[in-house]
Specification:
With 211 residues, this protein is an alpha+beta fold. The protein has a domain at 18-131: Jelly Rolls, CATH 2.60.120.10. The protein has four helices and twelve strands; from the N terminus they run βββββββββββαααβα. The strands form two sheets. Strands 1-2-3-10-5-8 form a six-stranded antiparallel beta sheet, with no helix packed on it. The protein is globular.
Amino acid sequence: MILPIDYTSPSTQFTFDVNTSPLFKKDNQNYINILGTAQLNTLENVSLLDIFLSTNNVVEPHYHQNAGELVYCISGAATVSLLNSFTKQIQNYPIKSGQVTNIPQGWWHYIVANADNTHILAIFDAPTPEVILGSDILKFTPPAIMAHTYCLDENVWKQTIAPVVPTTYIGPPKECNQSIPTPSSSPNFMQMYLPYNLNLYHYPYMYQNGY
């Protein structure tokens, strides 16, 4: 519920410096700032995340349960990937400066930076962007439930997700020592980093939909 705004109150805010509102920081090249009603109390059905990424860094898989999201690329380049809730297929949309991708409310998605100094604005039709992160799902769902539901070895599952840090936001972690190939250096890059087509159980070609 959005309360009426008292525009006569001395506490009413009309301006704010988003640079002073960090949500998450991995390092000086990879971080997210936030603007919602907690920061600017005259906002109504709008909020945003100001996202900065370097090459191959990923805004982890997640969904927003209360808002749709418009992803606008200010500079650099990125691929926005979403799981279509109706077709059960991953759709991948490379964007660069001036281009956007729209993500409907509640759809599973993630963003991979394709260039250094990538700057993205994520705009939401809600006063505060709520989020369910993939890392939190992995870490906070009881291993016994995962093992039983999907017929897994519980101990193997625990070992597999042990390195996952809750509320990752931007991955991979700084301490990750795995070499990460780029699309130009490895033909299998997309097979490694983009999820499979859930209907056909194979990896789709990245530049579908005319890209």
